[in-house]
Sequence to fold (151 residues):
Amino acid sequence: MKQLHGTTRPDRMPATTTSNSTARLLAHIPPPPATLASDERAAYVWLIVCEELHESGRLTRLVLPLIESYCLEMSNYFRLHQQAEVAGPVLEPRDDGGQIYKSIPNGYTVLKDRAYIKWQSAFKVLFPEGMAAVAVPVADEIDEFERLMNS
Fold:
């Protein structure tokens, strides 16, 4: 339509996906980066996400930093979720007489919610087609995943 009306300026045309340069697919799944070395949960998620992207032909060097961020935020979310569960969603400081004088949100709950938003944002970039793109893990993988997410 824009060509018919003579308004084909480059800044008005939709971006095209045809390009001379394309990201090269990685032949192998790289080991988790050093930033994930001390976090067993994040390192495990790294392997799951990289395997999923590798099998679907989308694992490139360009997405590795995003995968790293995703793994860290997912691990942060579960860690903060566990800490928030222990303390409860609301803190209720008491005065000398034992009366609650105000209710404040638990800081872990606030941080957990922020980590969730970051985690979901990274997921949407890695898997724009949503959960349908992610294969359902087999029973053994679910057990290991559950163990790590709840540790």
The first helix runs from residue 2 to 5. The two ends are 57 Å apart (CA to CA). The mean pLDDT is 77. Strands lie at 90-91, 104-105.
